[in-house]
Write a structure and sequence with these properties.
alpha+beta
């Protein structure tokens, strides 16, 4: 199978002109403590959720509503100098412009340790395109994935 999607490099300053989201948590010590009290999203496995909120992976940011994450940006792929934004938004919060706010908060955290930040998406995921547009990202390329 061959699939592809847009790949964006995040500039040092994101143009996140978004409405004020619900409260935001970030992966600092205070945010990690607060995240321990949140309800785990159903689509996150207990182990991966625990790794995320304990800070065992790279940086994260999340918008919270009623003691549950509504939108999360995290680093599913990173190395010593670069990180990719992984964005998840709960179905009942999609279209409310939370993703640009959590990506901007994630970027501010992750930028302290990484030289290059990416946001990539599949061609079929049209919901990610407005996120990139809101943040002022320009697609420098296309990522192809070949799976056998």
């Amino acid at each position: 199978m061959v699939a592809g999607g847009l790949c964006f490099v995040c500039p040092e300053q994101l143009a996140a002109h978004t409405p004020a989201p619900p409260p935001l948590l970030v992966s600092d010590a205070e945010g990690r403590r607060a995240a321990q009290r949140l309800n785990r999203p159903d689509n996150w496995q207990p182990g991966e959720w625990a790794e995320l909120i304990r800070g065992e992976t790279d940086e994260w940011a999340m918008a919270v509503h009623d003691n549950s994450p509504a939108s999360i940006c995290f680093s599913p792929a990173s190395n010593g100098t670069a990180a990719e934004a992984g964005i998840w938004t709960r179905a009942d919060f999609r279209g409310r412009r939370l993703a640009p706010a959590v990506v901007a908060a994630w970027s501010r955290r992750e930028r302290r340790n990484k030289e290059v930040l990416f946001h990539s998406t599949t061609a079929a995921n049209h919901a990610s395109w407005p996120v990139a547009h809101t943040l002022g990202l320009t697609p420098p390329g296309w990522i192809w994935r070949v799976r056998t």
